[in-house]
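Give me the fold.
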Amino acid sequence: MSKSDADFGRMKLFLQSLEKYTDKNLDYNENNKNLPAPRLLPLFPGLENKFVHRINDFPYLKILEKEFSKIEQEALSLESNESHFLNFHLKNLKPGAWGIYPLPSVDENINVKFFPNTVKIVSEIPNRCLLYSWGNAVFSALNPGAHIPEHYSLDNFRLRCMLGVIVPEGCEMRVGTINTFWERGKILLFEDSFEHEVWNRGSGRRIILIFDIWHPDLKPLEIEALIAGFAYPKVREVIYKFLQGKTAEYDAFLTSVSEKNIFLSNHSKYWN
């Protein structure tokens, strides 16, 4: 077996699964909370998926806690003006209960002027998943009394990093079969391919910084291939149209990103 075959063996299996994948597969793990069940893409093979990861296994993320005061200051400036946040829509969630404010998206540094320190800190984190079309970097605000119902992410090859900024008592998240909590200035790292839901039972609005990193079991060439494949405009367009028909989680901001027809020049070699 050549080095190329060894590096791309799992990617080939993933693509073969994707070729055979239909919307009938979407519920295949949903009755087992111990298993990941991404709601769009097949499972990427050979990854150790678990509900919550130990932050000590990711020392490069400690910079977020070290620089927390800078991030907090910029998040509080958003909190002072509720209109900054975009409404995120979910079934059974009261309109306006959950808002997001995006940081960089698809290699575009948007909104840098509002929080330059946060953007700089996040953009320098190794293994960040911001060039992938569904890699997120947002401030997330959840109003008191809100409950985000159980849901799944699109894939199982990212980890979601959450930094608590404003965390009232009574804020809680269930991932799979365990319940966990945020702390101000501390990181919570979990896999959103498992069923998860969130509550704010407190009296104030909860604000956290969310961004994604690649799963640590992925090889560098696998990451490059995933970025290239899902950066292609036609691929994103097909998936977004699919999501429009299958979920209420469709967000106007993400739609606008797709419509920009962004294509990363350094990945054009895959599409010649």
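Residues 163 and 187 are 5 Å apart (CA to CA).
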